[in-house]
Amino acid sequence: MVRKYRIGEPIPTDSVVAEIEITSGEIPFFTRDDEKKSLSLELGDSDRIWGLGETTRGMNKRGWIYISNNTDDPVHTEDKKSLYASQNFLIVDGNDRKFGIYVDTPERVTFDIGYTKASQLVISFDDFDFDIYVVQGENLKDIVHQFRKIIGKSYVPPKWAFGYGQCRWSYMNADEVREVADKYDKAGIPLDMIYLDIDYMERYKDFTVDDKAFPDFPAFVKEMKDRGIHLVPIIDAGVKIEEGYNVYEEGVANDYFCKKENGENLVAAVWPGKVHFPDFLDDKVRKWFGNKYKVLLDMGIEGFWNDMNEPAIFYTEDHLKEVFEKIEDYKGRNLDINSFFEFKDLVGTISNNPEDYKRFYHNYKGRKIRHDKVHNLYGYNMTRAAGEAFERLSPDKPILMFSRSSFVGMHRYGGVWCGDNMSWWSHLLLNIQQMPALNMCGFLYSGADIGGFGADTTEDLLLRWTAFGIFTPLFRNHSAMGTRRQEIYRFEKIETFKKLIELRYSLLPFLYCEFMKAVEQDEMLFKPLRFEYEDERSAEVEDQLLFGEHLMLAPVYKQNATGRYVYLPEDMKMFRFRAYNDYDEQELTKGDHYVKADLGEVLVFVRNGFELPLVKPALRVE
Ligand code: GLC
Questions:
Q1: Is the CB of 307 under 6 A from ligand 1?
Q2: Domain architecture of the chain: domains with CATH
Q3: What is the pLDDT of residues 231-243, one digit of tens each?
Q4: For the segment 38-74, what is each residue's pLDDT rounded down to a tens digit?
Q5: Nearest CA to 606 among 544, 546, 523, 557?
Q6: What's the rounded Cα separation, in Å, for the pair 424 and 438?
Q7: Ligand 1 and 420: CB distance under 6 A
Q8: Which of 71, 166, 198, 234 to mutate for ligand 1's pocket (most ligand atoms within 8 Å of CB)?
Q9: pLDDT at 292 over 90
Q10: DSSP letter for each residue of 530-544
Q11: Measured between alpha carbons, how far is 95 from 111 in angstroms, rounded to an integer?
C-alpha cells in the first residue's frame, strides 16, 4: 500500500507515474518541524536503513549523512555525502515496523541517518515543498515492489548490451579501435561493445565526428558491426559555443539554452571550453536535443552514454571573471592566515560551485525556475530527451542508453554507471554495495567501471572485479586518460580473464532471464541477504549479494586473498568456477564457512536445488 502526503507546493519531478490521491493528515511515523524544515523519526537500536541509491558507504545507511545534490565528484571516499545521483527512496527496517519512504522533490534533501544523533533519522529540506510516499508491504521485497509499481517499468537495453564492453578515455582514432577489436578477437575473448569517449568528436562537439581520426565514420561503424561489435559513443550535456556549429546555432536561435537572470545564455565551460547548457527541462528542448541523436543513429550507431550531466561545470564565465578580479586584489598584499587560504581556494572552488547553479534558469512546466531548485533533475531530463527520442526514432529496435547523473524516473529511459570510481579494492566493495540500492529505484541496467576508472589498476584487482562484473548487467571495463591501460589482453593472465568473460557469456540466457523477470515483476536483481532471510546475521552481511531468485554471490574484494569467509543463511550448493566448463561443486550447510577462491575463481551459491543453466559461450551475444 502506498500513501501520498504533500507538504507545501512541490515542484513536480515526473518520477512517479501512478495516479495517487493525496492523503490528508499527518505523515505517519515522522514528527514534522516546519520551522526547521525537517521530518524526524526515532530509530530503535536494531533499525536498519536500506536504500538511497547510488551513495557512498555500506548497504545499511545508518550512521552517516547523505545529501541529494547531484555532484561531479570523482573521489568517492567515505567522507562524501553526495555523488552523481539523487534517489530519495529508503526503507526503515525495524523488528516491529518496516516501511519505505520516497521523498519526491528536486530540491536538496539531507538524510541524517543517526549521524547527529544515533537514535534519530532526520530528513531536512532547503525549502519545505515535497511529496512523500509512505510505502507499506508484507516484507522488504514487497515494499520495494510496491514502490517500483508506482514509478514505472525499468529500461530494457538491447540484448547485445549484456555482452562485455571495452572503453578507454579515449581511443583516439579508428585504428586504435580496430586494434582493440583485433586483440580481443585474436585472443578469442568475447566482446560486444567498444566505447568511444570524447575524442571521437570534432573538438568535443556533441553529434559530430572528427573525420580525420574517423574518416568515413558510417563505413567504420558498419565494418565493426559486421564483425559483431557495437560502437557506443559518449554525449555530453554542454553544447560548444562555436559559430557555424549547427547545434549551437539552432539552440541560440530558438532559445533552447539555459539563461541567466538578465536573459543572456549562461556561458559555462566543460571539455570543449565554453558551452551553453540545453534546457532539458523544457519539453520542446528535450524534443529538439533528442532528435539530434538521429545524426549518429543514421550513421549506424545503436547505443550511447550520457555524461557530465549533473551538469558538471569547470567554471562559469561570470565566476571566472570574479576570480580574476579578486586575484588582482591580492597582488602585492601580505597574505596572512585568512587571506592566504582564501586566495588559495579561489581557483580551487571554481568547479561545480553551488553558487554557479544559482546563476541560471529553466523553463519548466511553464514556469521560470532557478537551476539550483531543480538541479537534481538535469541529468534525468537529458537522458529522458534521448529515451523519448528513441521511442520516436527507433520504435522497433531498442537503443542502448545509460547516464552518469540520475534521479528516480530516469530508470524508465536508461541505465546508469556509477561514474568515476578508482582502481581501489574498496571501490570493488562499493560497487557490490551500490547495486541493490540502485535496483530498489528501478536502475537495473547498471554497473561500475570494471577495474576502476581513476588511478592505476592491478591485474589482480581487474581479475576480481571482472569476476564480480560477470553478474552486473552493464559489464564495462573503463579507465581514465593517464592511468595504466587496462584492456585485458595487456595482462599476463589473459587466459584467466578469457575464462571469466566466457563464463559471463555462458550464463547470458540465465542472466537475461533474471533481468527481464526483475523488470517485468518490478523486483530487484541484486538484494542484500536481509531481503530474503529474517535472521540477524543476514542483516549484517554487507559483502555478499543475492542475485535474482536463486543465487548468492560472495565476491573476493581483498588483495592477496585466496579465499574468504562466507555466511550461508541456509544450506546451499557452492559452485567454484574456473571456467564455464571447469568447476567443482560442494554442498554447504547453513552457517559460516571459509572458502577458497583463487584469482580467476568465481564463487556462486545456489539456493533450493536450483539447476544453474549454462550454455556454450560465443564471441558475441548474438
Ligand atoms: C567523465 C566520465 C568518464 C569519461 C570522462 C571523459 O569523467 O565520467 O567516464 O571517460 O568524463 O569523457
A1: yes
A2: 2-151 (2.60.40.1760)
A3: 999 999 999 999 9
A4: 999 999 999 999 999 999 999 999 999 999 999 999 9
A5: 546
A6: 21
A7: yes
A8: 234
A9: yes
A10: GGT--SHHHHH--S-
A11: 21
